[in-house]
Amino acid sequence: MEQSTQFPVLSFSEGVKDGFPICIGYFPTAMAFGLVCRTAGLKLWEAALFSLTNFAGSGQFLAISLLSSGAMITEMFISVLLVNLRYSFMGAVITPKLKDVRGIKRFMVAFGTTDEVFSVAIFKGRNLSWRYMSGLELISYCGWVTGTFVGFWVGMFLPYAMQMAVGVTLYAMFSSLLAQETRQKGAMVLLISAVSATLNSLLIIFVHLGTGWSFVISMLTATLLGAFFISDEGLEAVQ
Amino acid sequence: MSHNIPYFVYILASAVATILVRAIPYYASFLNHLPPFLNKCLRLLPIAALGALICPGAFWDFNPTWYAGVMGVGVAYILAWFKMPMIIPIIASIFVTYLGLVL
What we know:
The complex is a heterodimer of chains A (about 240) and B (about 100). The relative contact order of chain A is 0.16. Chain A is globular. Chain A has about 240 residues and is mainly alpha-helical. Chain A is built from 14 helices and no strands. The longest helix of chain A is centred in the N-terminal third of the chain and has 28 residues, at about 10-40. Chain B has about 100 residues and is mainly α. Chain B is built from 5 helices and no strands. The radius of gyration of chain B is 19 Å and the shape is extended. The interface between A and B is large, with 102 and 76 residues.
């Protein structure tokens, strides 16, 4: 802990302050999730349980879309595991900075590791305290959970065609992410996702494979093809 | 494909899958030393996931008015390309899909 002699230990309120933009950013996405849950036929408590226990953007959207398309529970489990696998690598980067945090506290920090929490914490550039991480993660978590409630509730007042249209929400979110990734990392992103998109469409529409398996097969095939054919230099941009 | 498993079991299974991948690095250190090829795969995986998450659902869910979903996804892509905060592409996408459904 040599650093603590130079910098004061990061406080809870500093965590909350840093996490506030994340909270604001999560709210509308969580609202979209609440709306999607309503359209999929879930009850309010089920939608809330989703956000309270998962706290994972794309993982939850994937799980709800597989659930509503009638996928088997094993298909969903493996798909969610794979989509969230990136958290393992984020965690591996955070761990060395997280000294003297053990037991249930360590578990709670792990639970709250999201893409945004990770990037904020890691650019803090020094040892992370339990107080700081709990503030950062708690405020983000609040935005995610309350957004889910509000989204579900707002859905009650929407006409039928509008509720149908809301079904596009998660595709719009994935499409936006794809646009951001393509802008940052180049056409290689479009190429890889085009492979998985085409394969997934063929498997579902013509082979009538289950949604979950089809998703896993398409995702892994496109990943392996990309890893074989894209040079390490081409990959440098993908951090 | 109907199933009799209650929703909350699915939700909790998804929670277990999520916490598993989150907690592992906090208790094991082998992830810091993966072979380069696996590392490369793991960086490409989220990108590969996006394609399969969008298609075929984005048009298949809206059959027979499949073009409504395609329009919505297209608008979201264009707006996000121009660095709009994510809520704007999403709202615009819902609006455009709604127009595609009712017109």
